[in-house]
Amino acid sequence: MSRTTEIERRPAAADMAQAKRFVWRLERLLRAGFEAETALTIARDERYDLHELLELVEADCSPHLAARIVAP
Description:
By secondary structure, the protein is mainly alpha-helical. It has helices at 3-31, 36-44, 50-58, 63-70.
């Protein structure tokens, strides 16, 4: 494999990892009861601490309020 080919593949791998992380975050948010639009917004913005959001929801905080509390 040439060096150029190896370098060209790195961004694709990084993009794939980011896409997988987005899908994982989105699925977790939807399962926790977040509305689709809110879940999409939060899943895209990694400044939101997903674990903190989910802990709040598990402690009976509404998804809407949890998103407001954790908003960056």
